[in-house]
Amino acid sequence: QVQIAESGGGLVQPGGSLRLSCAVSRFTLNYYGIGWFRQAPGKEREGLSCISARDGSIYYADSVKGRFTTSRDRDLNTVYLQMNSLKPEDTAVYYCGAVLDLDFTYSTGWSRESEYHWWGQGTQVTVSS
């Protein structure tokens, strides 16, 4: 059974940083792209970033571009989301999801929640003073 687990969330002051981890098991990052999403109370799940399996291309939402950085460690089967200059509006539950790389058009599909096959349980990030 595929397993995805996010970790690294917590409480941080505005302007601070956090690094989230997305550890996957029972499948390889060679065949699945990994996307980061978040969901704030009363809002829809928002796509933040995605890293392609086939060539490592990374996509970002405008809301986080320049502040968040996605990376991966194939040996550890883990994808990271480094979040800097955090703002109160970044408060949300953060999720990572896996999308099958085969024939997937990342440029138009990476931020669509419905494209992802598996999800982690989420990790809470709270930005507050």
Strand tally is: 11
Instruction: List the total number of helices.
Output: 1
Q: Strand content of the residues, in percent?
A: over 45%
Which radius of gyration do the C-alpha atoms yield? Answer: 14 Å
Show unreliable segments: none
The shape is globular
> What characterizes the major β-sheet?
7 strands, mixed
Class by alpha and beta content: mainly beta
For the termini, the CA-CA separation is 40 Å
Overall pLDDT score? 95
SSE ordering: EEEEEEEEEHEE
Protein model, in words:
The chain is mainly beta and 129 residues long. It is built from one helix and eleven strands. The strands form two sheets. Strands 2, 4, 5, 6, 9, 10 and 11 form a seven-stranded mixed sheet that branches. A hairpin with a 6-residue loop joins β4 (32-39) and β5 (46-51). The longest helix is centred in the last third of the chain and has 4 residues, at 106-109. The mean pLDDT is 95.
Outline of the structure:
The chain is mostly beta strands.
Keywords:
single chain, 129 residues, mainly beta, four-stranded antiparallel beta sheet, 1 helix, 11 strands, 47% strand
Strands, helices and their partners?
Blueprint (H helix, E strand, L loop, with lengths): L2 E5 L2 E3 L5 E8 L6 E8 L6 E6 L6 E3 L7 E6 L4 E6 L8 E9 L5 H4 L8 E2 L3 E5 L2
Parallel strand pairs: 2-11
Antiparallel strand pairs: 1-3, 3-8, 4-5, 4-9, 5-6, 7-8, 9-10, 9-11
